[in-house]
Amino acid sequence: GTVLMSNTPATPLLTRAAAADAAPASPLTASGQINDVPVPVIVADTTPQAPSWWVAVMAWKPPPPVNLKLSWHWAVLALSFASACYIFWTYINVAFPYPGAPTAPICSIAYSECLVIGVWSLWRFFVCQSQQDSLRISLVVASTLVMYGLLPVILASVSIPGIGGPTTFPGNHTPGSLTFFVWWGLTLLFGRRMDCGYCCTCVATRETCGYSSRHRTQRQRWLWLFVRHIKWLSVALMVLYIVCLMKFLHLPEKFTSFVTKWFWPVTLVPYYASLLLMPLLGNRNYCRWVCPFGAIYGISNKIGCFTIRAVKREECLHCRQCESVCDMGVPVEELVRTEGKVDSTDCVGCGRCVAVCPRKVLEIEDITTVVVKLTRVVKQRFRKTKDDQAKE
Questions:
Q1: Can you give the pTM of this predicted structure?
Q2: pLDDT of 94 strictly over 80
Q3: Cα–Cα distance, 148 to 71 (Å, whole number)
Q4: Can you tell me whether residue 309 is helix, strand or coil?
């Protein structure tokens, strides 16, 4: 209702009940005063009131716009998890066959991985954030599909010799095979990225299907100090497996049979199961903490030609953008600050840290860099010798 105030606003106001108690016998004057004391006068509001349903209608507000980016993210994450489940199921279907297990090609592990990589690569190209990213993903997808999808079909009759006997092409992930050792030699020249950075079904699956889980990469300090070393147990098991393949050592038959029987399940079950954990632990969880092949090839980062060198170390802003894009959780900024280079066995040589650096502090070096430097030195010495001869 409407409240009529007296014309003396500085005087304290009294309620009608208080005014009545103060002067109960005095009538209320037309001016709104009781014994010259101003009081508020409540006048009934005769304005017609709208129905409650109309008030509710007029008070309704449309919901906030849907965050399409967030919605699409969750949709992609759900489809990614479904694809990971499909790959895991096909592995179980082949490795541990059960009565009535389907035998169609689409239910085999070799087919499922290539199918998932091929389909998800289309989406991956759509969300590429830079030209360097587009180029790298193109190389990863193309090399993986050719190396592990096309060539094994074309070269199905080709056998790769090895310590444990012949294996099928390509065999670079078969410990003891000739290709395995040749691939290791290539990592000495080009670093671990020869396998884990550009040519592996693992990296192709996790860079396409698992790309939506990159933001879940765990970077806690204790993971770098302790947990990442668990993979050396897998390396020890791999070395033991290769030793058991050497028949000339005449190791106990029961022991060698036990190791060779359980090596692959112990290695592959965690690999395919880790695909299901990508939404929780990031897309490179297996590569960081379990993979024996990546650890073996990573040794080449220490003893080979590959390194990521801080050529402009003094210009580093310590912004840690390099660390924020590293899926392997490598403390790039710390290594640059303390050592002036990144040659960790965990580095897969993807080059994201190099590309994102605002001051271009980092550069990748491998055998090509060594050859260029040697060529430059030889040219300088040849030119110096020629100049000396001309002076004589």
A1: 0.78
A2: yes
A3: 34
A4: strand
